[in-house]
Each structure stands twice: as structure tokens, then as C-alpha cells.
Amino acid sequence: MKMLALRCLVALTLLIAVTVAFANPFKSKIISGDDGVLEIIVPGDHFMKITDFTQDGGTDRAVVEVTLPGDAENGGTTNVLTATRIDFSTGSNAVNYPEIGNRVTIAGPARVRIRPVVGAKLFITYKKERDEGSGGGGGGSGTPSPIPVFSPTPTPTASPTCTPGAPFFTPCPF
Predict the structure, then answer these.
(1) DSSP characters for 39-94?
(2) Cα(first)–Cα(last) distance of the chain, in Å?
(3) When comparing pLDDT for 20 and 106, which is higher?
(4) Cα–Cα distance measured from residue 26 to residue 124, given in angstroms and rounded to the nearest whole number
(5) 113 or 131: which carries more pLDDT confidence?
(6) Count of CB atoms within 10 A of residue 46's CB?
(7) Model pTM?
(8) Other beta carbons within 10 Å of 100
(9) Alpha-carbon dihedral angle through residues 75, 80, 84, 88, given to the nearest 10 degrees
(10) Contact indicator for 103, 49 with CB cutoff of 8 Å
């Protein structure tokens, strides 16, 4: 009986270790109307994928703002994603049909901000990943990949054939 319990403990430990090692890197946040601004910093060698951004309630529409460092044009901030409303009964943005949620990928370095909306709850799901880099399409090693060179295909030449049973006898060239 002790051996069975020990085997079960070892199996459970291995399953927990695998679950922790391959855990889902997505993070989710809920922002209420009285919370502060959610600010997420994306380092230069990372990128951020936003897969879900929804809004329940409120009259104004929530947006994801991105500020790139050193961008002086337009104050350096732009809106890249609008929340998908799941409550259609309030505000001037009320509609009767379901909205389509979009996804966005933000390359670092960037500062991502989500401001709360009065009377609304916002839900965002995102993942930050390290950018392994592709080296500009050259395979990621930093060296350019060789360009394949194709030679022209030789054109076939006609060869004489035997046609047995033809009205005129044609001798074979063999």
C-alpha cells in the first residue's frame, strides 16, 4: 500500500512540474471605473499581444493607448485598440448587434496605458514575449541568407519515333 502511495505521489509531482513549466503566459486584468490607469511597459526586445479587450457598461468607449519613446509627432501617443462592448443597453454607443473583437501586437519599446471608464468594467488579456528576432528575414542569425540562383530549363529536342500500323511504313532509327 505504501508503494502505491509513493508512486501516486511521484506521478502527481511530475504532473505539477509539467504544468508549472508549460504554464500559460497570458495575463488578465480587470479595471473598474474607480481604479487607476493600468500601465504596462514593453521593453525594447519584447512585444505584447493583446487578445481580448472588452467593456461592460459605461457611456464612453475604452481604448488602449501606446506611447513610443522618442516619438514627438502627435505627442507620441496613439490609440491602437478600442474595447469591444458586451453590454449594449447604455450610452450613445448602444447597438443591437454583437461587435467583433480585434487583436493587436505592440512591438517594444513602448508604454501601454488603459484608462478606466466611469461606470464600466474593462477586461484585458495580454501576453508579453521576448522577440527572438528574425534578423530582417535572413533567418535570425544576423547574416544574410543566400539567394537561390535558378538556371534556365533546357528545352527538349524532337526525336524520331516508330509508328507501327501507320499507313506508311516508317523505319525505326534503332
Answers:
(1) EEEE-TTEEEEEEEEEEEE-SSPPEEEEE-TT--GGGGEEEEEEPEES--SSSTT-
(2) 86
(3) 106
(4) 10
(5) 113
(6) 16
(7) 0.58
(8) 6
(9) 40
(10) yes
Look-up of cell digits 487607476: 36
Residue 18, all three cell numbers:
509539467
Residue 126 near residue 27, CB atoms below 8 Å: yes
Q: Residue 144: which residues within 8 A CB-CB, separation 6 or more?
A: 138
DSSP element (H, E) containing 137: none
Length of the chain: 174
Q: Give the three cell numbers for residue 164.
A: 507501327
Contact indicator for 100, 26 with CB cutoff of 8 Å: no
Give the model's pLDDT for residue 140.
47
Is it the case that residue 89 has pLDDT exceeding 50?
A: yes
Q: Are 38 and 30 in contact, with CB atoms under 8 Å apart?
A: no
Burial of 96 (0-12, 13-18, 19+ CB in 10 A): exposed
Residue 18, CA atoms < 13 Å, CB-side half-sphere: 6
CA dihedral over 26, 27, 32, 36, signed as positive or negative: negative
For residue 104, give Cα distances in angstroms to 45, 51, 64, 120.
17, 7, 10, 22
